[in-house]
């Protein structure tokens, strides 16, 4: 069975919650019963080595994080892995960012072939503040987009279809 | 000549190194810790004792358990609470998880690339994927052991004054125990691998300071010892160890008998070899390490031995696990001063709290291992640079300095109260 991981990365600081908002919305959609794949939805508070552990045994990974690219806040963009970079590429126990974690997983031959990365452009990341309306709205729409993609690829046949086929 | 490392990589936090060389002498060497003070002790004032374990856990994402256990040791001493053997055993098992994850992270991602001449862990991982995968697997096991007790691996939430908020289920414990036993083969292989790493033969003299604890290898409790015979309880720490401000650091400098001293895995091993099993001592012997060791670069083997020890110890502690009637002792606060310490992955972590009759924190003092090692790191840098040879070019000197510093696994964020290198040749 295909093993799918949807991983939202975030923190409690304002729009940095974007990844968490997406996985929360996906959980509410109750996708697991409608898919023929094994689905695991994960919220991480930092990529670190935990992200690499999440890649192990996964066939498909969907990764969502907040981005700051200069685009309009709330803009959702699918990012090519080679586009990811960190301002400070030095690697430490505390500061293993998404780009370094992806690079390290690749070096360790633990990176699944199918990795999709979505970024939601943030407006501000202020501690103890909720997300901005545009980011919350974008997160909700992205959750639906990911759900639709997963249903299209891994949707379990309806009971009546299965009976007809049998 | 002047060498500047303006920001040291693969360490925790922000620091810099400045070295001024005149001819064949080091005129000035300063480890500059400029990460802003975090004022955690001040933030604790006015808080209830019940909040302290969760607050101090936030000081460090790598060693939150150490901060929690030193804190509860101190507060339990203030309230004269004796925790039962179940609590002691489970705290020790939890703490083993932190040693495993912290040491594996340091060995594989932070220190090992230095010894093989790689610029980064990623570069090393491309050429030795099986070694790094094994390291990260063991690190993940440590994280899961912390999660078993604390709900999550970063800033776990189960430790409280008197014991734990909850006891894990017997099924969860049984599953973890099996994983720990299964990992012993890999952790033994890790020790043998670290023993095969060629490190500089850099013998130096320094006092070792670490805890001792009955018949066991010191982790979560014990008294403070040194290789000159010092044996003191935590409340006597300030009578023997001094803290002072220096202009170039936001971390306090610690001295013992007026000079630098070492805390951490090598100091622990040097003072507690007799607390290891014959099998662990044989493994050390096979790895070619004579203990006590005066070569700081043997720290990488010390960490690996402690990983192997911690995995076996945690498995042992989880044998015959039974859920207690209550996972915590009854706590009745009283006014007073409490002192506590434990052996964080990076070394001795000492806490003192003054509390009122309701258990409100009136004053806190936390002395982390990195600030205790600062003077030793500077002393080591001077000796190591001279042994390495000042005739090397600036880049070679910078790389050697970074290797020396990273070998201590400094956690500047914890200590700031950390590396950029600037070298002046005159």
As a percent range, the share of helical residues of chain B equals 40-55%
Radius of gyration of chain B: 21 Å
Main sheet attributes: strand count, strand direction, barrel closure of chain B: 4 strands, mixed
Distance between the termini of chain B: 5 Å
Query: If interface size is counted as residues with C-beta under 8 Å from the partner's C-beta, which chains form the largest one?
Result: A-B, 19 and 28 residues
Query: What is the radius of gyration of chain A?
Result: 17 Å
Indicate how many domains the architecture of chain B comprises. 1
In spatial order, strands of the major sheet of chain A run: 2-1-3-5-4
Q: Count of helices of chain B?
A: 14
Instruction: Decide which structural class fits the backbone of chain B.
Output: alpha+beta
Which topology of chain B does CATH recognise? Cytochrome-c3 Hydrogenase, chain B
Care to count the β-strands of chain B? Answer: 14
Shape of chain A: globular
CATH topology of chain A: Rossmann fold
Strand-residue proportion of chain B = 15-25%
| Beta strand % of chain A | 15-25%
CATH superfamily of chain B: Cytochrome-c3 Hydrogenase, chain B
The structural domain count of chain A equals 1
Mean pLDDT of chain A: 86
CATH homologous superfamily caption of chain A: HybD-like
Major sheet of chain A:
5 strands, mixed
Describe this protein's structure.
The complex is a heterodimer of chains A (166) and B (426). Chain A has 166 residues and is α/β, with parallel strands linked by helices. Chain A has a single domain, classed as Rossmann fold (3-Layer(aba) Sandwich), CATH 3.40.50.1450. Chain A has 5 helices and 5 strands. Chain A has helices at 18-28, 48-55, 98-107, 133-154, 159-165; strands spanning 3-9, 38-44, 60-67, 76-79, 114-121. In chain A, strands 2-1-3-5-4 form a 5-stranded mixed beta sheet, sandwiched between helices. In chain A, α1 (18-28) links the parallel β1 (3-9) and β2 (38-44). Chain B is an alpha+beta fold and 426 residues long. Chain B has one domain (2-425): Cytochrome-c3 Hydrogenase, chain B (Orthogonal Bundle). Chain B contains 14 helices and 14 strands. In chain B, the strands form 5 sheets. In chain B, strands 1, 2, 3 and 14 form a 4-stranded mixed beta sheet that branches. In chain B, strands 6-7-8 form a 3-stranded antiparallel beta sheet. A 3-stranded antiparallel beta sheet of chain B has the order 11-12-13. In chain B, β9 (241-244) and β10 form a beta hairpin. In chain B, α4 crosses α5 (121-127). Chain B is globular. Chain A binds chain B through residues 45-46, 49-50, 52-53, 90-94, 96, 100, 103-104, 107-110, and chain B through 7, 9-12, 61-62, 102, 105-106, 109-110, 120-123, 125-126, 129, 132-133, 136, 139-140, 143, 153-154, 413.
